[in-house]
């Protein structure tokens, strides 16, 4: 129930937490702050974007980190472009991560914290991604993983080192933090807090401009917001597939092949016999004969064994050859000579003298070539299909490597070439997003968006049952859409933007009226546009907590963070308008000193206090070392990344 408090009152420590586990981020090879030592030519404003203590953060560092950050986000949104990445404020977050990285390194160096080579080696060996088939660290697997991600051993060690240093510095600062009893009581009491107020929505559509738009105004809006009209990269993919049908009758086994396989596996098709028996092993032949004679005379085998201080052991599904290997040929001969239900003649092995009762006999007659022809044919056909497809794929790969075109390969195999329309990285069709590429192409999409034009590749799909041969026919890079093609979209965005500005101004007017003593309903009625009536709210934090399985509406969350008698506005998001939130009354009920809510608050808020301690330490590191930013260089990197 206190998850609400954890979400509602937690401190802003996401960045510090990320740094504390930077080693884990490095395992995924997506760290947004990979170090670099080069310079970035062509950037105005100098070669550094920030200085932390005595350490410089170069423009090249920021460019590399931004590209890695974009790659990481593209794992969730493959169509994300660099202009969108920069426009959403991610470049600033990347720079802050670089600053924190250098602050932690500088502070650790100043006060003697270190992460030695042996510790780094140990961390690398513990990473599951670097383990071989035997479950142990494998050097070749490690090198291959680094090559795929295009990073060096030094970069991995640097990232792991920063992660270990951040753990040494930040975790002790937050470990064991506790909440004072009075504070825990106060937060537990908040659970019983009741708030009464009202929430009104001023829709942007209500205040959006009507009538014809001025073309010059639309053009100016387009020029000022070009990053909002970026079209993602799209590619046309040409492809063909082939399966075992391409092998023709080559996969059909011949009579000679069937006969050879039958001969090779003759033992598998020969007559066989397995036996189940219960046996005793005794030291002397005389003892074994005595047991056999008593059982033959009508005594129970198990009873005779117990009287001798022994236990008869059952053995199941044993062949003669296996028994001979486990005991001796003599024992096997004796056991397989006795009839079903009979006692065996005593026989000797290295363990002693064996005597047994045959419990059952399972005899399988020999199978002739005619009996197993179909079974062998099916096995050979599947083997030839798999091998034939693999061989054909290898031949095609060699042809492509030697310069053959996709069209030539398709013509050779009589394959039908197909083309997709312009396709986005997530598989949707650019011109009709409701449609997507065929399923057979989906496993190859990531590779297709890294290939050059007309450089065909081949890949197995459907578990190797089918092979895909494909190439990129055309690439259209991410770019701002021409104004002439999206004039209607620009106008719609302009109207929405202007509607938001007007709705914000209306929210300010409504708040001013409320602060002068008007009711919310009267303040809304004074508007010259007809807006929806305000919604009354009367609920406790306990009521709010019951919604934890759902997303708490932002205006409701705001209402529970405001002081009594205050009025605030809130962007409704998505250019839909502005909320105006008014808190009329706040009441608080007392709770017992031993109420279980207090213990829960103490337990759940401790980690939040610890996070705040770590956050303050992180900021103190920056302050002690000193941080300066080069705004002109940062702006130059931003322009370079978005192509301006």
In whole angstroms, the N-to-C terminal distance is: 50 Å
Overall form: extended
Average predicted confidence as pLDDT: 86
Low-pLDDT regions: 1-42
Count every helix, treating DSSP H or I runs of 4 or more residues as helices: 27
Protein name: Parvulin-like PPIase
Subcellular location: Cell inner membrane
InterPro entries: PPIase_dom_sf (IPR046357), PPIase_PpiC (IPR000297), PpiD_chaperone (IPR052029), Trigger_fact/SurA_dom_sf (IPR027304)
Organism: Qipengyuania pacifica
How would you characterize the overall build of this protein?
It is found in: Cell inner membrane. It is a single-pass type II membrane protein. It comes from Qipengyuania pacifica. Helix content is 48%, strand content 17%. By secondary structure, the chain is of the alpha+beta class. Helix 6 crosses helix 9, helix 6 packs across helix 26 and helix 9 packs across helix 26. The radius of gyration is 39 Å and the shape is extended.
Task: Summarize this structure as a short list of keywords or feature phrases.
644 residues, alpha+beta, four-stranded antiparallel beta sheet, 27 helices, 48% helix, 17% strand, extended, disordered N terminus
């Amino acid at each position: 129930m206190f998850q609400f408090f954890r979400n509602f009152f937690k401190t802003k420590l996401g960045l510090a937490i990320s740094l504390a586990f930077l080693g884990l981020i490095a395992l995924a090879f997506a760290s947004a702050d990979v170090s670099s030592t080069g310079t970035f030519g062509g950037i105005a404003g100098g070669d550094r974007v920030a200085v932390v203590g005595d350490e410089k953060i170069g423009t090249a560092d920021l460019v590399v980190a931004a590209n890695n950050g974009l790659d990481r986000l593209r794992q969730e949104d493959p169509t994300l472009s660099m202009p969108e990445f920069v426009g959403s404020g991610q470049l600033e977050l990347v720079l802050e991560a670089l600053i924190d990285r250098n602050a932690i390194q500088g502070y650790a160096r100043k006060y003697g914290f270190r992460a030695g080579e042996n510790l780094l080696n140990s961390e690398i060996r513990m990473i599951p991604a670097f383990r071989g088939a035997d479950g142990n660290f494998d050097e070749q697997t490690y090198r291959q993983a680094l090559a795929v991600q295009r990073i060096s051993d030094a970069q991995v060690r640097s990232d792991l080192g920063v992660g270990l240093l951040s753990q040494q510095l930040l975790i002790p600062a937050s470990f064991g933090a506790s909440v004072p009893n009075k504070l825990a009581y106060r937060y537990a009491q908040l659970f019983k807090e009741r708030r009464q107020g009202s929430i009104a929505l001023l829709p942007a559509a209500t205040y959006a401009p009507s009538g014809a738009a001025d073309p010059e105004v639309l053009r100016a809006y387009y020029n000022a917001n070009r990053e909002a009209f970026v079209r993602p990269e799209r590619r046309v993919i040409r492809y063909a597939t082939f399966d075992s049908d391409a092998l023709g009758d080559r996969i059909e086994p011949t009579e000679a092949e069937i006969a050879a396989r039958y001969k090779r596996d003759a033992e598998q098709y020969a007559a066989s016999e397995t036996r189940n028996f219960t046996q005793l092993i005794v030291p002397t032949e005389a003892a074994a004969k005595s047991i056999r004679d008593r059982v033959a005379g009508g005594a129970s085998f198990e009873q005779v064994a117990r009287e001798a201080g022994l236990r008869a052991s059952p053995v199941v599904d044993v062949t003669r050859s296996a028994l001979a290997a486990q005991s001796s040929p003599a024992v096997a001969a004796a056991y397989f000579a006795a009839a079903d239900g009979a006692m065996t003649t005593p026989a000797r092995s290295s363990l002693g003298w064996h005597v047994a009762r045959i419990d059952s006999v399972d005899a399988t007659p020999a199978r002739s070539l005619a009996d197993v022809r179909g079974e062998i044919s099916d096995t050979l056909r599947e083997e030839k299909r798999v091998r034939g497809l693999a061989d054909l794929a290898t031949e095609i790969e060699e042809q492509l490597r030697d310069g053959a075109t996709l069209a030539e390969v398709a013509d050779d195999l009589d394959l039908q070439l197909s083309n997709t329309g312009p396709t986005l990285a997530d598989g949707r069709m650019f011109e009709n997003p409701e449609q997507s590429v065929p399923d057979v192409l989906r496993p190859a999409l990531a590779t297709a968006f890294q290939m050059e034009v007309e450089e065909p590749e081949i890949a197995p799909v459907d578990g190797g049952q089918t092979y895909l041969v494909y190439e990129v026919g055309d690439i259209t890079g991410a770019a701002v859409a021409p104004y002439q093609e999206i004039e209607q979209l620009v106008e719609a965005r302009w109207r929405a933007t202007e509607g938001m500005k007007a709705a914000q101004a209306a929210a300010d007017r409504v708040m001013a009226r409320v602060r002068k003593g008007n009711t919310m309903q009267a303040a809304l009625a004074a508007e010259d546009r007809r807006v929806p009536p305000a919604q009354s709210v009367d609920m406790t934090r306990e009521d709010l907590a019951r919604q934890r399985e759902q997303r708490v509406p932002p205006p409701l969350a705001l209402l529970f963070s405001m002081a009594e008698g205050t009025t605030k506005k809130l962007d409704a998001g998505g250019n839909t308008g502005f909320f105006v939130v008014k808190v009329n009354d706040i009441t608080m009920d007392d709770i017992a000193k031993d109420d279980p809510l207090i213990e829960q608050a103490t337990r759940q808020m401790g980690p939040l206090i610890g996070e705040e301690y770590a956050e303050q330490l992180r900021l103190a590191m920056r302050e002690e070392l000193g941080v300066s930013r080069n705004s002109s260089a940062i702006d130059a990197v931003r322009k370079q990344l978005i192509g301006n």
